[in-house]
Every structure is written in C-alpha cells, then in structure tokens.
C-alpha cells in the first residue's frame, strides 16, 4: 500500500526530531517567553512569584546611563567585529589558498585561536595586558614607547578597545575558514579564463573572485554581527564583571540579574538584546532560506 | 523501534528509582561552602572530619565554590527545591533580608545564649528568632610591612597627618605607600567604612548604609575628599584596578608596597616566611576624632528552609556552636571565635579583640551592612574615584540616583 508507506516515511523525520525539538522548546523557546514575561515584573519575581511592574523596567532603562554605555560599547564591538576580521580574514584566506609551500602550516597556526575557549583566551590576554609585567607593555617599553604602556584593563578609556582587540584576534581565523570554504566553490575555469584574457591580479580578484565569494561574505558579516552582539565571555573573564566601563548588554544583563538580584531588570535588558539580535538573525535566516529554495 | 522505547523506559524507570532511593536516606548532609582559600578550606575540612567521627551515621558532602561566584549563586542555593542543608554566609543585613522572606530555617533549638555575646545574637536574629550560627570573626586594620618600616625608620602613625607623612616617606623611597587590589572592588569598601567613620562618626555611617543619607551630602563628599586626596598625591598604588586583592598583597609581602587596609585574613595568603614581617595598626584618627569604628565582620552558617536533611543540619549547627568546634576552626587561622568561652588564640588576636572592645562603632562591612546592589555600585564608585579623583562629584551624583531607587525598591 503505497499511501501508507508514504505516511510512514513522512512521520519518520518527526520521530527523530521529537526529542531535540522538545529539548529546544523546553530550554530555548519557553525561557525566551518567560524572560519576556519577567521583564514586566518586579526584581524578586523569579523567586517569590511574579509581581507586575508594568513598563517600569523599560522606563528605567531609558534613563540609565550604564545601559546606554552598554549599547554604545556593543556598537563599537559591532563596528570593529565586522570592519576588521572580515577583510583581514579574506586577506589571509587569499594568501593561503592554493598549494603554496607551508600554507597548510600557516592555516593551522592561524586557526589555533579558534580552538581555545574564550575563558582560556581571556586568561591568557589578561596576562599579556598586565600593566607591570605583561608581554604587551614589556614590548612597548623595550622599544622606548613607555608612554603607551598603559593600564589596558584598569583604565576605562582603553578597556573596551583592549577587549575588542582580543575578540578580533579570535574572529579573524573564523572568517578565514569561511572564506577558504567559499574559495573552494570558485570554479577554476573562470579564474583561468580571466588569466587568459589578461586580467591583472587585482582585476581578477575584484571582478571574478569577490563576486563569487558574495555568499561567504554574507555569512561572515552576519555571523560577526551576531557574535559581536552576544559578546560576553571575554568581558566577563577579563574584567571580573566589575569594570563597568567595558559594559556590554550581556554583561549588564548578567550583573543586574545575578549580582544585584534584580531579575526583572535583567530580563528587560535581555529582551532589548534579543530584539536587536533578532533583526540580524532574520536577515541571515531569510538569506539562507532564499538560497535553499533556489536549489 | 518498540524495543528502543522499551529500553528507554526501563532506563528511565531505573534512574527514577535510583534518585528516589537516594532521597530517602537521611544519613546525608550537604554543605555548600565559600571557603576556597587553602587555609580556611583545610580548617573547615578538619571540622567536618571531627563531626563525622562523632556522628558516624552521617555522610557529609562539602561543595566549595569560589567566594565571588558563591555570592551570585546564593539565591539558587536558597530557593532550589533540592537546597543544600547548610550554607556558609554572613551575619547582619545580608542574612536578615532572606529570613524576612521566609527562606531560612530558625535554629533557636540549638542556640545557647550563654555561649555568645548579645551583639552576636542580635546580628544573627530576625524578628526574635535566631537564623544564623556565628563561627569566627576578624578585624580590619592597616596592615604594613615591618621590614620596610624598620629600614626607613618609620613609626606606625596614629593620626591622619602622621599617616600622610608615612605615605610621603614611602613614596620618596620608591615604595608604593598604599596597596589595594581594586580589581576586587570590595577592597575599596573598607576604605569607605573606615574613612567615613573617622570623618563623620559611627552613627552617621549607619545612616549611610541604611540609605538615609544622600551620597551627595557634604559630609560624604568630605569623606571622599580625603580618599581623592590620597589618589591625587599618588599614594595609592599605580595600576590598582588591574590587581586582585591577593596580587596586591604580594606587593606588600615583597616590600614593594608599604601598607594595605585589609582584613585579618590577609595572613592566610602570606607565605610562611613573610607572615612575621606583617603587622597592623589601627586606622588613623582624623581631625582629633578619637572615637573610632572597626570592621569586624563575622562569618557563620545558615540552614535554608528548603534543606533536605534538616535534622542533620541542625545537628551540625549545634556542633558548630560548641567551644571545641569553634576552637578547632579558629586556632589554626588565628581568628577570634564567636563562642566567648573559646580562649583567644594568640597575642595578635588579643590585640584585635582589644581594638574591637575599645571601638565606638562595630561594623560588619560595607557590602554586608548595605543591600548588595547598593554596596556593589558604591564600591565601583569608590574605585572609580581612586582612579579619577577629579570626577568625584559627578560619580557621587550618579551613585545617589542609584541609592534613591534601590532603597525605594526595598520597601
């Protein structure tokens, strides 16, 4: 009976998906709606039961300097996270693509930071940034730039910059991998054709390769945007969450909820962060879906 | 497929059964501890071993979490359905706020009035019931490196002017006058407590931690003027915000810094060969105001209302209050026991006790006397002012906005 077989095979994927979907609903979807609900309640609601607080948490956000500082810092993260790793990752990928001697070794070396967790990266860089005996300041002093040997993680003027630099350092190899994969999809015939037609290196890159890398670029940019918006690990590890000058939305959410035990306010921050991120995610998912349907 | 489901069901049933069995046995006692530094951790383990020897039927599990993480986890411990049975914690406001919410189990059954000073009972109680078993207490004072002072021929200062002169002499000798590991912002809380009491007196300081005084009040501004003055003169170690409290202590142990306003537990982290080079003096007198205050926080234990093995928990609480148990813990650490029948462990502790007895005001500590959000933001502000003394007015104005909101929300 073909009809019944069809039904069975249509059900099979759902049987396999049931468990992960259930977990996803319980641990991701439901909490998202819960934090939306908590955002409208008083500080202790998560513990003693919800007390409706109206828009008070959001009104407080509007007048909270620390919140706007977090937004500003998140914007800085965003700008530098897209502005530096994407072109740099592309450059590195172009350099090491193809069979140049040693390129495999270099690719591996570049990729190594990706394999470390943010906690480890943060701890290593904390030592590098140590104002008195860290590698960075020791180097700066050794070449006579004593004036530049500042307190990277203790001075509010440099803190966010120092943290972003670490994030960028880790993001470049990620983008590199995305582009290396993208370069696999560039047909060699087209490149060879442009060679025969006498295109210069730059023309070849600009007119042939780059347009073909557009899908990889879209992925690299959206992922970098999303990563920059959820930056938390580095800030948390490297500033002990106390250095409030480097505040980003995620760290402010964490300290509001868990350090100051104001879960209503923390949830309100989470909601704002969710909405901002959602915009970029929708763009990304929309693009993926479009490609899927084109196939 | 059916077989898979059958197996899954069997596994599920078995685990449920297993978990259920684990629950039933009341021979367990789970303790959640913040004593993560080596010395207190060992002292506490000695206590637990002794308790198990005396109560062979009870199996004790100690889970240790680093201090700062512990503070952020406490709400989870208190409200979890499977709450730990005994928690390490602080007396005073930080405990009472949870008692008020019904999260704590009263321990009157095992409390003995004869063992503890009345002030300890007050700080351990809420609404006429005792919720907290005090164990040990310590004092805060200005710790200094004796070798450095001897080399430079410096005497320990009694007044603020003498203190400034010592700072100047240390700075001239290329030694950081005041060590502070401001990456752990609580290190700045001690400065606020001592400076504010020295300038404005204890009663005023209590009003401040109770939220009754604006941080823009001229009297508080004056307190911060003193702190800002130290920063402007370069007496506070450079790069303070990049150092944890232990890292800054190492500078003093090594003679690279002279003085450190710290709790007695600084001795816990001093290397064995440096312990004797470290001594302390009472915070200097400001403007002839001889009535002084001291930070004498006391630490102890509480039982969550949702504790699983309450019977065992109370047994352990009773044990913790005894003279023997308190001596076992305090002696190796050189700390003072809450139980007044325990002899003072050494001459140093006797000095600490005398200082406390002579004080007009005893405080728990800024982050224990004030609500945690207020204290956290207050300590951030102090650290900021140490780093940017010119911006004090602006920083205090922002802090006061927070004070208004935080105390309004508490009501």
Name a few traits of the molecule.
heterodimer; A: 295 residues; MetI-like fold; 15 helices; B: alpha/beta; D-Maltodextrin-Binding Protein, domain 2; six-stranded mixed β-sheet; four-stranded mixed β-sheet; 52% helix
The CATH architecture designation of the largest domain in chain B is 3-Layer(aba) Sandwich
Oligomer: heterodimer
**Class of secondary structure makeup of chain B:** alpha/beta
Number of β-strand runs of chain A: 0
Strand content of chain A: under 5%
CATH superfamily of the domain at 64-261 in chain A: MetI-like
How many DSSP E strands of chain B?
14
For the record, give the distance between the C-alpha atoms at the N and C termini of chain A, rounded to a whole number.
31 Å
Q: What's the SSE blueprint?
A:
The complex is a heterodimer of chains A (295) and B (411).
Chain A: H1 2-38, H2 45-48, H3 56-62, H4 65-83, H5 85-96, H6 103-115, H7 118-128, H8 135-142, H9 159-184, H10 188-196, H11 201-212, H12 214-229, H13 233-239, H14 249-259, H15 263-294
Helix pairs in contact in A: 1-15, 4-9, 4-12, 5-9, 6-9, 7-13, 9-12, 12-15, 14-15
Chain B: H1 2-24, E1 28-33, H2 38-54, E2 59-64, H3 67-79, E3 86-90, H4 93-100, H5 118-124, E4 125-126, E5 129-130, E6 133-137, E7 140-145, H6 146-151, H7 160-172, E8 176-178, H8 186-200, H9 202-209, H10 218-232, H11 245-253, E9 257-263, H12 266-269, E10 278-281, E11 293-295, E12 298-302, H13 310-321, H14 323-333, E13 336-337, H15 347-358, E14 361-363, H16 366-369, H17 372-387, H18 392-410
Parallel strand pairs in B: 1-2, 1-3, 8-9, 11-14
Antiparallel strand pairs in B: 3-12, 4-5, 6-12, 6-13, 7-9, 7-10
Helix pairs in contact in B: 2-14, 8-9, 8-10, 8-17, 10-17, 17-18
